[in-house]
Amino acid sequence: MDIRLRGVSKYYPMGRAVVPALRHVDLEVPSGQFVLIRGRSGSGKSTLLHLIAAMDRPTAGEIVVGPWKLDRLSVQEQARYRRHTVGIVFQHFHLIPSMSALGNVELPLLLDGWSPRERRRRAEMLLEWMGLWDRRTHRPVELSGGEQQRVAIARALALDPPLLLADEPTGNLDSQTASEILALIGRIHRESGKTVLLVTHDVQQAAPFTRRLIRLQDGEIVEDVLV
Ligand SMILES: Nc1ncnc2c1ncn2[C@@H]1O[C@H](COP(=O)(O)OP(=O)(O)OP(=O)(O)O)[C@@H](O)[C@H]1O
Ligand SMILES: [Mg+2]
To answer: pTM of the entire structure?
Structure first.
């Protein structure tokens, strides 16, 4: 699904001042592209993903994702957009501690009204795809960091969104595990053709999967190259 940002700015009010998190960002990502986004802490990487995920609204500018004009969405449309169009993965996996891997992956399906049988089938298929078949009944505390992240990725893919956003998904992992997670995201991209926006500092390790490198600095795109 194509993504288009035109003149997008985001300012956060902080007391009497405003913090510019993004400034006049223009960006077009064609459907199916794998984009790596990097930049120093505070450069606006998470803000960019949050806006594209419709978790927040820009202060100015417009964002269009496929048929969705994100600034025009009603509350219901926003919920539908987020559920069906965007899968998002974070540095801290945000799994529900009391639920098994299966339970966590089934959650978006439950919220979307799937029957117990269909939910279980879909969650099992996703966990198998993530190489977690024999961990499917484990709760998050019974999983390694890399396994927890794979569960979180499976959950993000539950409703087969065309867009996968990952915000430093390897930030909490050792370098070996980080490589495995990046390779997994690369494989998902290859096998599913989803559009992937990956925020990471592991540029070397992600390089084999990436077509495009974007660097943010002080809320602006200062580098945008095809590789
Ligand atoms: N909710 C908020 N309220 C106020 N300022 C914010 C808020 N969220 C982000 N900011 C500010 O906006 C700027 C961009 O933040 P953002 O989280 O997008 O950076 P980042 O590139 O993801 O950094 P990191 O690598 O540390 O995750 C920073 O200066 C940050 O302090
Ligand atoms: Mg961030």
So the answer is: 0.96
